[in-house]
Amino acid sequence: MNPVTIRSLQAYKSQQQTFAVITAYDATLAQLAADAGIEALLVGDSLGMVLQGQDSTLPVTLADMVYHTRCVANGNRRAQRPALIMTDLPFMSYGTLEQGLASAREVMQAGAHMVKVEGDRWLVPLVTSLAQQGVPVCAHLGLTPQSVNKLGGYRVQGRDQSHADTMVDAAVALVEAGADMILLECVPADLGQRITAAVTVPVIGIGAGAATDSQVLVMHDMLGLNPNHVPKFVKNFATSGRTVNEALAAYNDEVKARTFPGPEHEFA
């Protein structure tokens, strides 16, 4: 089967069909996720917490991201239908245009098909430059974990009207600058719906309601492997004796049927 591309995901949005995204950090689970029908794999800097045991994503290095991107790419190319691979640029690896372009080059050469960056309108020059260089970009808005210290913790974003309006404006500006996708984390469901309708590119949600074009979860959360605090937006799909393969397939099916997330996973 033909690999999933940006055009594939854009077609899903235009046809009002949802698609699934999951984090992946190694070759084995990357191949299993792609073979379950999941369209996109996010090599997330969440690996700092779920693989390295860090308290946040901040200690993750660019070398870490390159290594895990290469692992995921190796597994993904063995899948029946290879997924699109999206890789986080880690903390302070894109503070300048030159640094951002260099960081993007590293992860793209390791096998990523798209980079993900956290921020808002200040990202416009970087997104423009990356797009000009042929690098697809996903812009991450809402709760941005790399800014956890500035935000004062892991808190829902965009609950007040002013902040919500600012986030909508930022999403539109980033798409106009060349962003190919938006990821929204921990925002009220009505804001997730509003931003999804405001932009022409696919919107991926995590704790952003059911109206976004796609959903993403951290692989370990989806498999019930989180021994600590479980966020409200998480659902364990590895229940009732399911294997890993069956859990991945169940997640994919529920995302596409829009039965996940349910009201209990949303923020008001």
Automatic annotation (TrEMBL):
EC number: 2.1.2.11
Enzyme class: transferase
GO molecular function terms attached to this record: 3-methyl-2-oxobutanoate hydroxymethyltransferase activity
Active-site residues from the entry: 185
Cofactor comment text: Binds 1 Mg(2+) ion per subunit.
Intracellular or extracellular location(s): Cytoplasm
Positions that bind Mg(2+): 45, 88, 118
Source organism, top-level taxon: Bacteria
Catalyzed reactions: (6R)-5,10-methylene-5,6,7,8-tetrahydrofolate + 3-methyl-2-oxobutanoate + H2O = 2-dehydropantoate + (6S)-5,6,7,8-tetrahydrofolate
Pathway annotation from the record: Cofactor biosynthesis; (R)-pantothenate biosynthesis; (R)-pantoate from 3-methyl-2-oxobutanoate: step 1/2
Key words, A-Z: Cytoplasm, Magnesium, Metal-binding, Pantothenate biosynthesis, Transferase
Cofactor(s) it depends on: Mg(2+)
SUPFAM superfamilies named in the record: Phosphoenolpyruvate/pyruvate domain
Binding residue positions for 3-methyl-2-oxobutanoate: 45-46, 88, 116
Family, similarity comment: Belongs to the PanB family.
Job of this protein: Catalyzes the reversible reaction in which hydroxymethyl group from 5,10-methylenetetrahydrofolate is transferred onto alpha-ketoisovalerate to form ketopantoate.
The protein's assembly and partners: Homodecamer; pentamer of dimers.
NCBIfam families, per the entry: panB, PRK00311.1
Protein name according to UniProt: 3-methyl-2-oxobutanoate hydroxymethyltransferase
Organism, as annotated: Oceanobacter antarcticus
Source species taxonomy: Bacteria, Pseudomonadati, Pseudomonadota, Gammaproteobacteria, Oceanospirillales
